[in-house]
Amino acid sequence: MNYVDRYLSSVPTQKNHLQLLGAVCMLLASKLRETMPLTVEKLCIYTDNSITPQQLLDCEVLVLEKLKWDLVSVIANDFLVHILHRLPLPTDKVELVKKHAQTFIALCATDYTFAMYPPSMIATGSIGAAIHGLSVSANSFSGEALTELLASITGTEVGPVQPYVKTSGSMGVTCVSQMPVAEGKSVQQTVEILTRKLELLGAEKQGTFCVDCETYHTAASTMGNQGQAGKLMYVMHNSEYPLSCFALFENGPCLIADANFDVLMVKLKGFFQNAKANKIESRGTRYQYCDFLVKVGTVTMGPSARGISVEVEYCPCVVANDCWNLLMEFMQSFMGNHTPGIPSMFGNKHDSIYSPGDTMAQYMELFNKIRKQQQVPVAGIR
Q1: Class of domain 76-154
Q2: What phi and psi values does residue 184 have, to the nearest 5 degrees?
Q3: Where is it located (predicted)?
Q4: Domain 1-67 matches domain 76-154 at the CATH topology level
Q5: Cα distance between residue 105 and residue 352, in whole Å
């Protein structure tokens, strides 16, 4: 990507030449970085033979000229080993953090907003996002203390690093589904059976999680007609994002705000009323298995357990269509016949980047499904 960006910054290039440029830059990078570089023939096959070997070789000379033969570029990946060596991480977690940091660096290469960051800052932020996302303990360092340590290692100011860690730490593709209660078992017993299967697979406990949802409906004073149906808004929180608040409308967009949004809703009580009896939450244990993060939760309304939620995240991928088959295969290993089908929203995502809001929308659908199963109407609406 370094070669591509530098070439495009100096040479106007038509869209139909981008594949050729990309293939040439891959060839040059493999020659410099790999002991066994890619061959011209293999790259042509990768492009479905839309370019010829001669075109590739001719363009290679052109790119080298435009880059002034300066191919030894320092990239974010070059900083990872040096930074990780100076962090107080558990020895058995270093490779896992490195792998996830490499994924974040690759994602940054797909977003032009990161083009202005120096490689050292991208590496620093990616490691911070990986440690935060994996909930890895770095001795007594966490939160702002970890950010300050990372900034001191690379000689970067804390200010620029902090928002970068939050920006790069996006959620991997996630599937949220309901697990039916086993016949003759209680909710808690079914949860224990499920978590036991995960532990037998080799999954390790990684703390706890909580997702909650409060329902608001439009106040009667704001409705023009007496028979008019009120609109519902769901205000949700996720322990993975403690500083964020998610507001979702039925069949509508997801608004992501800071924690002060809850205070705003109190002040808007003349327009939106809280159906307090309908607060619902899922709370349980997080498990890490290789690149998968699994959360098995007990869904409750008030003091009563109403169901079981299973959230499975494939951390390295943020494009749903690229990893659904892998996700489904993993879920089958512990959910068996209860493995869910592809979430409806995946069909709408196509090749776009998965976001935390997509996970919250799945939780909203799950909570509403459980409410209907329990035949609990939303107070003030029906």
Answers
A1: mainly alpha
A2: 80, 5
A3: Cytoplasm; Nucleus
A4: yes
A5: 18
Q: Cα(43)–Cα(49) distance, rounded to whole angstroms?
A: 9
Q: What is the CATH number of domain 1-67?
A: 1.10.472.10
Residue 291 amino acid letter: D
Find tokens 């902090």 and name the residue. 162
Cα 165 from Cα 159, distance rounded (Å): 11
Which pLDDT tens digit goes with each residue over 100-128?
888 888 777 766 667 667 788 888 878 77
Alpha carbon separation from 115 to 67, 71, 122, 152, 274 (Å, rounded): 17, 18, 10, 22, 44
User: What is the model's pTM?
Assistant: 0.58
Helix 94-108 / helix 77-85 crossing angle, nearest 10 deg: 150
Query: How does pLDDT run across 139-196, given as a tens digit for each residue?
Result: 555 556 666 777 777 676 545 444 444 444 456 889 999 999 888 889 999 999 999 9
- How far is residue 342 CA from its own chain's centroid? 17
3-state secondary structure of 175: strand
Which residues lie below 8 Å from residue 46, measured CB to CB, with a gap of 6+? 23
